[in-house]
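Structure in, sequence out. Go:
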């Protein structure tokens, strides 16, 4: 820009000199007689001077325009970016685009989670129905047909368990303890103990209430007994009984009812391992807890299970004698 200013100064000097020369020539023309013809040389000098003067003026105007443009750019360079309207418009457009993308991604993710959970609930409902259908086959069909239909139900059960396990893995941060345990038990029944173990641990992480923790401990204890790890099974049954000691329930009836079921399950697992002493011990504890509870449907179910358990225990004791 400084070079252009210097050039303009030099051109201004040239313009002044040209204007002086042109003035001198015009004075000669004015002093000549009106009828005297100007020489060709004088006319050519005047035309040449005027052309040169126009060219110099054009160059000066062009330089002035370039100087103005450079001054504008220089002003922009010294101005903070947040005062540049073009930059601010581009930045706001970028922020809007980014915000729209984030919101769209969040809504898509939430919709996917919602759809996955709805599909998981449907699969779990079907898993609950299949054992009953399998049990009813013997009373509805002959032995050969029942076996064939049972194999089909088992295949369907395996397929549904696979789908449910995949959904739980995909939305692991959005499933409840109950959902994890239902899939874990189905995996245990299918003999897929390693996957069942992993889902039980996920059920512990997802637990939000004492009932969730108690259910996870009790189910995990049953898995350990199934795997033959009796000591670990007993430890988790004991943890299930201690849950409401650490976090007392506002409704004691529910805690005692839950503990009665835990003692009953514990006794059943001990009986299945032919540990008669331990089975008898936990059967008595369950009966004692049930005796404290008001009579109702839940207590009647537990009492019916206890009576059936006592029959099995007596039969087993008689067989061992």
């Amino acid at each position: 820009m400084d070079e252009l200013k210097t050039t303009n100064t030099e051109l201004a000097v040239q313009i002044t000199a040209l204007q002086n020369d042109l003035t001198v020539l015009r004075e000669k023309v004015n002093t000549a007689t009106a009828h005297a013809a100007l020489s060709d040389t004088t006319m050519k000098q005047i035309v040449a001077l005027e052309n040169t003067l126009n060219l110099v003026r054009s160059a000066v105007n062009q330089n002035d325009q370039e100087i103005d443009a450079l001054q504008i750019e220089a002003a922009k360079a010294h101005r903070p970016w947040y005062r540049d309207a073009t930059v601010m418009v581009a930045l706001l457009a970028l922020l809007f685009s980014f915000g729209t993308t984030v919101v769209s991604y969040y809504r898509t993710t939430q919709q996917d989670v919602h759809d996955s959970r709805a599909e998981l609930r449907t699969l779990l409902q079907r898993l609950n129905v299949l054992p009953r259908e399998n049990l009813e086959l013997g009373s509805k069909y002959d032995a050969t047909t029942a076996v064939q239909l049972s194999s089909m139900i088992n295949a369907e059960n395996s397929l549904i368990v696979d789908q449910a396990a995949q959904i739980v893995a995909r939305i692991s941060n959005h499933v409840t303890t109950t959902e994890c345990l239902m899939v874990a038990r189905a995996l245990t029944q299918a003999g897929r103990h390693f996957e069942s173990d992993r889902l039980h641990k996920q059920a512990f992480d997802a637990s939000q209430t004492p009932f969730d923790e108690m259910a996870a401990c009790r189910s995990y204890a049953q898995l350990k007994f199934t795997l033959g790890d009796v000591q670990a099974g007993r430890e988790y049954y004991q943890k299930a009984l201690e849950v409401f000691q650490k976090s007392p329930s506002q409704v004691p009836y529910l805690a005692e009812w839950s503990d009665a079921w835990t003692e009953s399950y514990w006794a059943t697992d001990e009986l299945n391992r032919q540990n008669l002493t331990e089975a008898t011990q936990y059967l008595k504890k369950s009966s004692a807890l049930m005796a404290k509870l008001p009579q109702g449907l839940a207590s009647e179910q537990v009492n019916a299970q206890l009576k059936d358990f006592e029959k099995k225990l007596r039969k087993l004791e008689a067989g061992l004698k």
